[in-house]
Amino acid sequence: MERTPEYYLTKGLDMVVNGVAAVIFLCCFAYAGYALWDNWSILDGSENALKTMVEYKPDEAEGPSYNFSQLMAMNPDVCGWIVMDHTGIDYPIVQGEDNFEYLDKDALGNSEISGSIFLDWQNNRKFTDPYMVLMGHHMQAGKMFGDLDKYSDETFFQKNTTGKIYLPDRALYLETAAFLTVDAYDKYIYRTQWDNVSERQELLKRIYEQAQYTRGEELTTEDQMVALSTCSTSGTNARHVLICRIVHSSASEEGSGKVYVETENE
Predict the structure, then answer these.
(1) Per the domain annotation, does 48 fall within a domain?
(2) Catalytic residue status for 137
(3) Beta strand residue intervals within the chain, DSSP E
């Protein structure tokens, strides 16, 4: 059969189309591979400081003071270590000169996109304020404060209720009280200075207005509270916040009078 010019033109166009498709496929494949590698690198990077520091994680049974001297020798901004039972939240806490410093620095002070768990710069690093705010990035695979997502499930929230914050001189025992989704600029939830009882009543009112779930005894102005905050997928400025009350301090003889019982793994 005689092949016309139109045949060769069509054949050439087919080859061009197939070639372009192959290039697009290879580019997509390469991009997907890079995205996976980049994601792994970020997750691995978020654990680098932890791998170095976990050897000196405070142990209440042995007393935290010695280990904290080692941690603070690595970075004097280290002020605590938080553990939320039955989650991946098990990290050193740092405090910077502002709330931007540790958004992209690990707990050793090195540049790291996953940042650190950090205490609001206006809070007392000795955790003596009535209300304190801890912040951390929402990372994949539950890293950093990514596992706060677990508390958005009401069953998990109701059954997994305990945690600890280790300090150089004592351990604070936490009990979860409320889970919220709020705006990043909420003037109550992210305010750390509450000077009198009437102001703290306004904070409690806001917590219960915004709460998706609550549990346990209702919070009062006598409770010392810690808020754990991270980004939420609900919106650009949406934040998940877990409100905890401090029910006991290992350095006090009587604590709050409430009983701390670690929840079983659910």
Answers:
(1) yes
(2) yes
(3) 78-84, 90-94, 117-119, 131-135, 162-166, 171-183, 211-214, 225-231, 238-249
